[in-house]
């Protein structure tokens, strides 16, 4: 199938979906159904000119963001503007999403409050408010003292202060000679033997080959004696500078002449190529603040300044429970069953977000097994996939009710991923419920799990990056949209096709999810970005 045929098929499917879900009370619904049953709409028809999600009393909202004309944006023909919003029910793996029309609950959207799990009602928190609730839901885990080898990926629980000067003594920055005073300089052991060695070897070459002299001072060895004015001694990079030395002459800049005299090939200044004691830090200096993630570089700095162990906030422990009888672990889809895409994906993604994944378990649609797994888990966070809506096999809400859990977020006004949830199982244990469709699940992961994990790990909160959109992105009238985008060489981001709630193709090629506010975004709008662990593979500074 060519790109043109694929686009035509996608547009026909869009029209049919709009016709199926449009209410007869919405002006133009019948006409849309007629168009969906007939041939492809005429060129220029805009299915978003009328709002299929509007309430009966609310006039249709005009489309805020129309697709850019062909050729207006590089690559617009191969990658047209992001397509229509998903109809109700498209963002969940089990059952249909709850219909919109939440204008009567706008106060709850702006200020969501925790409700017992038994009072099951998707309050549909606004996307920014849901993120805030997740970020404030938990206190950091208790700090622990760990050996350096076990600190990678954790967070500093206290400022990292230098235990020594760095470097702890004057050191040579280059291989060469430590010299004292102006040249030329006498080398130790120079005399007739050195001259005979030079005669046998021939004249020194232009690169500064010298006659043999004493091995000098090596890294890890203390100087044997002080240098006096006019003296020089061989020295290696990192070796301690002897007392009396005024500079280091690099090997390539010096030549040893007859009688063992060292001459400089260029001007030498006081202190040249010497790293003075305390150049990088002094003992007691604060090097890094509490809350800094422990990276390989942090481990190196801690070791250099004298640490054998660190006080850190540990990585949150997460257990993943994959729900759904329709999921296969291997092979091709068959007999109404499909491959499990979330099990292989979520573990590495959680690791990139700074979590320690303790297990990934597949339970199917089994309410007793789900309850038993939640009661037995000792993880800080349990992550479930699927079962968060209100279908016949959606067991998450009833199970939370039986366990006496507290719902902190019950549904979010975002597409895809509306039926995501956040619950407190116990004072220090949480559950994040993700929809079952892959892109919807990732939307839930970045909306609720990422800020919760950052809070538990006492991680830093950074201002989210932004980038301009290469083309307009249509919006939902009430809900935020999360759209896969790829970064262009210009620094702008281009929306990708294949952004349906069950799709992974767009996500796999994306650098980030662009946050599109209700109503859509015009070309050139600087959209907030949720970075994906595509290139760096690390939390926070992804991509």
Description of the structure:
- The structure is a single chain.
- The chain has 543 residues and is an alpha+beta fold.
- Among the domains are: 103-140 and 315-456, MoaB/Mog-like domain (Molybdenum Cofactor Biosythetic Enzyme, Chain A, 3-Layer(aba) Sandwich); 146-165 and 279-313, Alpha-Beta Complex (Molybdopterin biosynthesis moea protein, domain 2); 171-275, Molybdopterin biosynthesis moeA protein, domain 3.
- Helices cover 21% and strands 21% of the residues.
- It has helices at residues 3-21, 29-37, 106-110, 127-136, 192-201, 296-304, 342-352, 367-376, 396-403, 438-456, 505-509; strands at residues 115-116, 125-126, 144-147, 155-156, 160-161, 171-172, 176-179, 185-186, 232-235, 247-250, 254-257, 261-264, 274-275, 286-288, 309-313, 317-322, 327-328, 338-339, 356-362, 381-385, 406-410, 412-415, 421-426, 429-434, 466-468, 480-487, 493-495, 512-516, 526-531.
- The protein has a 7-stranded mixed beta sheet with strand order 1-21-23-24-20-16-19, sandwiched between helices.
- A hairpin with a 5-residue loop joins strand 26 (480-487) and strand 27.
- The longest helix is centred in the N-terminal third of the chain and has 19 residues, at 3-21.
- Residues 14-115, 117-121, 192-212 and 536-543 have low confidence and may be disordered.
């Amino acid at each position: 199938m060519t790109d043109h045929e694929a686009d035509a098929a996608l547009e026909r499917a869009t029209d049919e979906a709009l016709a199926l879900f449009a209410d007869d009370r919405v002006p133009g619904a019948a006409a849309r159904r007629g168009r969906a049953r007939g041939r492809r709409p005429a060129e220029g028809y805009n299915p978003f000119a009328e709002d299929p999600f509007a309430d009966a009393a609310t006039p249709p909202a005009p489309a805020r963001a129309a697709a850019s004309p062909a050729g207006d944006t590089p690559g617009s023909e191969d990658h047209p503007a992001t397509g229509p919003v998903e109809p109700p029910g498209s963002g969940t793996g089990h059952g249909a999403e709850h219909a919109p029309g939440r204008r009567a609950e706008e106060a709850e959207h702006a200020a969501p409050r925790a409700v017992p799990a038994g009072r099951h009602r998707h309050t549909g928190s606004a996307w920014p408010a849901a993120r805030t609730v997740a970020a404030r839901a938990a206190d950091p885990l208790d700090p622990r003292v760990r050996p350096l080898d076990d600190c990678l990926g954790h967070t500093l629980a206290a400022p990292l202060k230098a235990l020594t000067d760095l470097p702890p003594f004057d050191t040579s920055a280059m291989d060469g000679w430590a010299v004292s005073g102006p040249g030329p300089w006498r080398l130790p052991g120079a005399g007739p033997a050195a001259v005979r060695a030079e005669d046998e070897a021939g004249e020194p070459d232009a690169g500064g080959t010298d006659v043999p002299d004493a091995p000098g001072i090596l890294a890890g060895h203390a100087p044997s004696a002080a240098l006096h004015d006019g003296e020089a001694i061989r020295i290696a990079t990192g070796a301690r500078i002897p007392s009396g030395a005024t500079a280091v002459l690099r090997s390539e800049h010096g030549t040893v002449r007859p009688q063992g005299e060292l001459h400089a090939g260029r001007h030498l200044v006081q202190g040249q190529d010497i790293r003075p004691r305390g150049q990088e830090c002094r003992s007691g200096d604060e090097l890094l603040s509490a809350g800094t993630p422990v990276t390989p570089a942090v481990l190196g700095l801690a070791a250099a300044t004298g640490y054998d162990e660190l006080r850190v906030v540990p990585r949150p422990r997460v257990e993943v429970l994959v729900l759904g009888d329709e999921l296969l672990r291997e092979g091709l889809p068959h007999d109404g069953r499909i491959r499990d895409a979330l099990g292989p994906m979520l573990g590495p993604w959680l690791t990139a977000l700074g979590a320690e994944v303790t297990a990934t378990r597949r339970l199917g649609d089994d309410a007793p097994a789900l309850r038993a797994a939640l009661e037995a888990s000792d993880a800080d966070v349990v992550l479930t996939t699927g079962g968060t809506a209100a279908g016949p096999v959606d067991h998450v809400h009833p199970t939370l009710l039986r366990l006496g859990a507290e719902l902190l977020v019950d549904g979010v006004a975002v597409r895809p991923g509306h039926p995501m949830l956040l619950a407190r199982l116990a004072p220090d244990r949480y559950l994040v419920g993700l929809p079952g469709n892959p892109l919807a699940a990732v939307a839930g992961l970045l909306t609720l799990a990422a800020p919760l994990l950052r809070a538990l790990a006492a991680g830093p909160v950074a201002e989210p990056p932004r980038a301009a959109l290469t083309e307009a992105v249509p919006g939902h009238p009430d809900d935020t949209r999360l759209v896969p985008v790829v970064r262009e060489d210009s620094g702008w981001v281009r929306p990708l096709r294949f952004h349906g709630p069950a799709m992974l193709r767009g996500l796999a090629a994306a650098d980030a999810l662009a946050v599109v506010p209700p109503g859509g975004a015009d070309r050139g709008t600087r959209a907030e970005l949720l970075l994906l662990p595509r290139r760096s593979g690390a939390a926070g500074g992804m991509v």
